[in-house]
Amino acid sequence: MSNGQGQRSSIFSGLLLILLGVFFLLARFDPNLGVWHLFSRYWPVVIILWGLAKLIDHLGAQHEGQVRPPLLNGSEAALLVLVLLAVAGMGIYSKIKEKNPDLDFDAGFFNHQATQSQELPAKTIAAGSHVTLTTMRGSITAHAGEGNDLLVSVNETAESASESSAQDRMKTLHVAIDQTADGYSVHPVNLDDAGGHVTVDLDVTLPKKVSVTVNSDRGDIHISGVAGAVTATAQHGDIEVHDVASDVSAKMSKGDARITGVAGNVSLAGRGNEIEISEVKGNTAIDGDFFGPIRVRSVAGTVHYRSQKADMTLVGVRGRLELDSEQIEISDVSGSAKLVTHDKDIDLENVSGRLDIADTKGDIKVRFSQPPREDINIADDSGGVDVTLPSNSSFEISAVSQSGEVQSEFEDSSLKLENENGSGRLSGKVGTGGPKIHIATSYGTLYLRKSS
């Protein structure tokens, strides 16, 4: 009985509005916080708020003799949908922002932009010096010049509600060239005081015989022509390095990387998308989850690639290494090759040295244009194996498919082929002896093919 009292209003709508306001406030103070990711992890808080609101509604209605509100009325359902759409919109914005890091919540149709450029006084640098270039938001281009001077060109961009306020943001901001123990450091000063969306792009000409460290939180990095070591770090942006006469070390969180023409070693670590590395006279190491495609060509030393799904070591990639989320393609390796992978198909051609492959849930194809000289070991779990050798090859082989067949185009009196009870085996020797070939799979067909 209600004793003539009306129905009590629910407080759930108010709690939802508070929650929505908190989301927008968090996104306003820190657009990089990832509100959508927070919501995707802690969304049960909405159910907790709903239950808490209904408990308070019930107790309040009971105390005041009112009719308690329904479990969920039409206006509450509409508001709940609004909250979900708003948070989903933040998630879509965050995905777009990953691809376009210069986007900002402050940017809009009514914002104004102001820019200013300046050339800093030249600094003469001794050969062998080290130069550090840093910007929090902006791109950095560093290239070698003909002389011994450090030349810095600065382009600053600010956005605000009016052009005058955008210009005010840049008044306290400037770029300094500070002398260090081994060279110079170029970096923005008073960037925090400028506030808001302020971009500082640097275009730097360096003496050729220097080493350089380049850091950008949000922006692309381009480095070319220096003779010393290069270190590049980009949190949100692409990295491009070419024509370097020493080692190159790069770290990144998002973006693409292109490194070509390096006389020393190359090291790339972190996370990212498309990777291209070529014309490296030293070693190349790639460590991290790069979603590809990843292309490596013409590396004189050792290529080592490591991620959650693969660990590969290739000695002397005269041809190419290319991989994406599903497949690995390798051609023309002058030395040995060792691959440990899962959930990837492998297509490999012409390895001059020892070959070791361990794969899980993927098919393997191996081809040789010349008779193999070193041992071949292939282990596959749940996948087929297809090996093609020249007809004049000599080798000893042991091949087993626990749940599948073994088929061979080679015929020799010492070869023994058996396919029975759902499994297949091939063992014996072809020719005058040679490298040992071991092939095993738990499920799949093994093919030993002959090429002319």
Structure description:
By secondary structure, the protein is of the alpha/beta class. The chain has 4 domains: 12-99, no CATH class; 108-233, no CATH class; 247-346; 363-452, no CATH class. 19% of the residues lie in helices and 48% in strands. It has helices spanning 12-29, 35-42, 44-64, 74-99, 163-169, 191-194; strands at 112-119, 123-124, 130-137, 140-144, 149-160, 174-179, 183-189, 198-206, 211-218, 221-224, 230-236, 239-244, 248-254, 257-262, 266-272, 275-280, 284-290, 294-306, 310-323, 327-333, 337-342, 345-351, 355-360, 364-367, 376-381, 385-390, 395-401, 406-408, 416-420, 423-430, 436-441, 446-451. The chain has a 32-stranded mixed beta sheet that branches. Strand 6 (174-179) and strand 7 (183-189) form a beta hairpin. The longest helix has 26 residues, at 74-99. Residues 101-110 have low confidence and may be disordered.
